[in-house]
Known about the structure:
The chain is of the alpha/beta class. It is 30% helix and 24% strand.
Amino acid sequence: MPVRIPDHLPAAEILTEENIFVMSETRAANQDIRPMKVLILNLMPNKIETETQLLRMLSNTPLQVNVDLMRIHDKASKHTPMDHMNAFYRDFDEISEQNYDGLIITGAPLGQLDFTEVSYWGKIQQIMDWSQQHCTSVLFLCWAAHAGFYHLYDLKRRIMDEKRSGVFEHERVQQHVPLLRGFDDRFFAPHSRYAEMSLQELQDHPELTVLASSKEVGAYLVISKDNRNLFVIGHPEYQRDTLAFEYERDLSAGLQPTLPKNYFSNDDPSQAPIGRWHSHANLLISNWLNYYVYQLTPYNLETESIQGITPWEEQ
C-alpha cells in the first residue's frame, strides 16, 4: 500500500521516478479505509531531502499512511524555500488538539550544543510531552533520541571531541521482540553525531530496553517498556551518498572532518560509497508501523483513548 502525501509535494515526483508507490490526497480521498496517521517533525536543515528519505521508507509497507509535516517554528530556512514550508508544513498549534498513530522526530545538526542552549528547546519539550498523550508510538531519530532520553528519562549524553561518522555493524541483543522480526543477527546502520549515550545507563534504566547495539558505537535501538517510545541512535533514513555529502560539506567549511568509517570503497573518498543498510532500514520502519503503531492504535483516534498501551510479550 502507498504513503499518502500532498498532491504537489516535491518528494512525490522523486519517489514516483524511483518506482515507489505514493498516492495523492485526491486519489486517497476516494478510498474507504482507515489509513495510519503519521506526523513528522522535521528538524533537519534540508527539509525536502529529509522528508523524501522518510517518505521513501514509509512507503515500503502494506499499510496506507497519511502523513502530516510539522515545523518547529515559522522562521525562514536557509536550505528550504519558504513557499515550500508554508505550503506543506504545519505549526504545532494547528495540530495540538489532534491524535496521531505515529510521530517521527528527526535528528538535528545540534550535536555540540547543550539542550538548554537550543533556541527551540522549550517547544521540543512541549511536543515530547504532548506526544505521550496524543501519539500511539513515537520514533526518535539520532539527536531527537538523545533529547528524548534527557527530557523523558533524565539520562544525559556525552559530547565527543570528534564527530562519529560512518557505517557500523550492530547486533541484536534481544531475540523475541516484534521490532526485530526478520533482522539478521548482525546488521549495518549509518551514524553521524557528536554525542553518545552510556550503554550501561540505558541497560540499567527500569523503563527502557536495549534491543540492538554496536561494539564500536554503543546502543542503537532502545525502546520504552510500554512500547510508546522507540529510540534509534543513528540515521537509517540516510541514502547512500548522504554521509559523503556531509563529509564534503564539512571539508569545504574547513572543519577537517574524519573520514566516515566503513563507508567508501577501500576507504577512498574518491570512490563510490557502499550502501549496505537500506534493507535493515526499511524493515525497521515496516516493523515499527505494523507492530507498534497499527497493531496497538485505536480504530477511532478522535474518540477512543490511546492510553495504556499493552507491552508485547515475548514470543
